[in-house]
Amino acid sequence: MSVHFDKVKGYLLELGFDIKHEDQKEELFIIDSEDDGIVNLVVDCEDPILVIEMMLFDINTPSQDMFKELLIKNREIVHGAFALNEEGNKLLFRDTLQLENLDLNELEGSINALSLLMGEYYQKLLEFAKN
C-alpha cells in the first residue's frame, strides 16, 4: 500500500465521505455523498495522478446537439470535465490531480466542483439520459 493511498483515504475521511468500497491492491476508493449528488465516485491513485471519475448516465441516443451542449458546459466547470468512456456510450465526470503534492483543499475543491455541477445541471443531465 502506497503513502498516497493512505493520504487520500485520510482526506476522504476528514471530508466526511462515506467510503463504500476500498481496494488496497488497486489503490482506489468508491465514495458516496448522496446529498451532494455524488454516487459511486471512483477515486483512484494511479501514481503520479489521482483520477476522480463518476459515471453519469448511459448514452442511448447520441446526438450532436447533446455533445455540443456538454462541451459548452465543460467550459464552465471549475474542476474536471465531462468525458466519454472508451466505447463512447457512457457519460462520465472526470478530473485528475497530481498525487505528489495533493492537499486536502485541492481534493475537496475537485469533489465540490462535481457537487456544484450536479446541483446546477442535474435536470439537463436527466433530459439527456432519458433520450
CATH classification class:
Alpha Beta
CATH third-tier fold name: Yope Regulator, Chain: A
Main sheet overview = 6 strands, antiparallel
Question: Which structural class is indicated by helix and strand composition?
Answer: alpha+beta
Sequence stretches where pLDDT stays below 50 over 5 or more residues: none
Number of domains: 1
- Using only C-alpha atoms, the radius of gyration works out to 15 Å
Question: What is the mean pLDDT?
Answer: 95
- The gross shape turns out to be elongated
Give the fraction of residues assigned to helices.
25-40%
Listing every helix as H and every strand as E from the N terminus to the C terminus, the arrangement reads HEEEEHEEH
What would CATH call the architecture? Answer: 2-Layer Sandwich
Strand content: 25-35%
Number of beta strands:
6
The end-to-end span amounts to 43 Å
Number of helices: 3
Organism: Sediminitomix flava
InterPro entries: Tir-like (IPR054345)
Protein name: Sensory transduction regulator
How would you describe what is shown here?
Pfam families: CesT_Tir_1. InterPro entries: Tir-like. This is Sensory transduction regulator. With 131 residues, this protein is an alpha+beta fold. It has a six-stranded antiparallel sheet with strand order 1-2-3-4-6-5. The radius of gyration is 15 Å and the shape is elongated. 21% of the residues are buried. The model has no long low-confidence stretch (mean pLDDT 95).
